[in-house]
Design a protein that fits this description.
Layout lengths: L2 H6 L11 E11 L3 H12 L7 E6 L6 H8 L4 E5 L6 H11 L2 E7 L4 E2 L3 H11 L5 E9 L5 E3 L13 H6 L8 E4 L3 H4 L9 H12 L2 E12 L13 H21 L6
C-alpha cells in the first residue's frame, strides 16, 4: 500500500467479509473527483443503513479526492486504491469484486442521488424475486447543479430492454443501475475490450436475467467537461470494433454457459 493509503487508513486488499442477503453495496469509481465527490457521497450515505457499505475504488487520483473522502469519517465507506490508473471499467470491476452485499448499486463520483432512490429500487427487488436488474430515469444537471433536462431517457426515445437494440445503441446508464449479486457469475470478469461496463452488464442481464425500468428520475446525472464518458458518438470505425468485441464476448459467455441452455 502506498504512503497515502497508510496515512488515511485506506485498505489495499483486505479479505472480503461474508456475503449478506440483506445488505446493499454501492460501488463507485473515483478519479480526480474532488469537486463533486463530497456532495455525491452525502446524497448516498443518508439513504444507507448502518450495515450497508459504499465501496470506493480510487483510480490513482492526482488531486485530493482521497482527503475529501477521508474527511467524511463514515465507517460505511471502504476505500481501495489502484496503484496505477487502470481506467473506469477496471475500477468498477474491482469495486464490484470488493462488494459484499446482495444488491449492488453502481454510482458515478459526480452525480447526486435523489431522495428515496434506494427505497424505490429495493422495493422492486423485494416485490419480484425473479428481478435481477433495475435502472431508473435521471435528470441531467450541469457542473453548477442546474437542471438541463428533466429526463435522460426522453431524449433517447425511452428505454427498452433487449440484446439487439442495446447492442446497436446502448440504453443502459450505469449510474442509474442496481443488480443482484447472483448475476456476477455472468457479469464477471468484465471483458477488457468491451465499450463500457454498463453496456456489458445490461446486455448480459437481458440474456440471463430480468430487467425493470423505473420511469422516474432517481438521480441527477451531471454532465461537465471531465466526464469519463463523452456525450458525443465515437467514430464509425471505433463503434464497429466495439460492437464486434461485444458480440465476440457474448458468444464466449454463451458457450461457457451452454449447459444452461440444453
Amino acid at each position: 500500500m502506498d504512503q497515502r493509503g497508510r496515512r488515511l487508513g485506506f485498505r489495499e486488499s483486505p479479505a472480503r467479509p461474508g456475503i449478506s442477503m440483506n445488505k446493499v453495496s454501492v460501488c463507485m469509481a473515483t478519479y480526480n473527483g474532488r469537486a463533486f465527490a463530497e456532495a455525491q457521497l452525502a446524497s448516498i450515505l443518508r439513504q444507507l443503513r448502518k450495515d450497508d457499505e459504499l465501496i470506493v475504488v480510487d483510480d490513482n487520483s492526482k488531486d485530493d479526492t482521497l482527503r475529501v473522502i477521508d474527511a467524511i469519517g463514515d465507517a460505511r465507506i471502504k476505500v481501495f486504491i489502484n496503484k496505477t490508473n487502470l481506467g473506469v471499467v477496471k475500477a468498477f470491476e474491482r469495486a464490484i469484486r470488493e462488494a459484499s452485499g446482495d444488491i449492488i448499486f453502481l454510482s458515478d463520483q459526480d452525480d447526486l442521488w435523489l431522495e428515496n432512490k434506494t427505497e424505490k429500487v429495493l422495493g422492486l427487488f423485494m416485490a419480484d424475486p425473479e428481478l435481477t436488474l433495475v435502472l431508473s430515469d435521471a435528470q441531467i444537471i450541469d457542473s453548477e447543479g442546474a437542471i438541463v433536462s428533466s429526463s435522460f431517457f426522453t431524449h433517447r426515445g425511452g428505454f427498452r430492454a433487449g440484446v439487439l437494440r442495446n447492442a446497436l445503441r446502448n440504453g443502459y446508464l450505469g449510474c442509474s443501475m442496481a443488480f443482484r449479486r447472483k448475476m456476477l457469475e455472468y457479469f464477471m470478469p468484465i471483458p477488457p475490450d468491451i465499450p463500457m461496463h454498463d453496456m456489458w452488464i445490461g446486455i448480459v442481464n437481458d440474456i440471463f436475467g430480468k430487467t425493470a425500468f423505473i420511469d422516474e428520475p432517481l438521480i441527477q446525472y451531471r454532465r461537465h467537461g471531465n466526464n469519463a464518458t463523452s456525450p458525443h458518438h465515437a467514430g464509425l470505425r471505433r463503434m464497429l470494433c466495439w460492437r464486434a468485441s461485444l458480440l465476440k464476448n457474448i458468444a464466449l459467455l454463451l458457450w461457457r454457459n451452454k449447459s444452461k441452455w440444453t
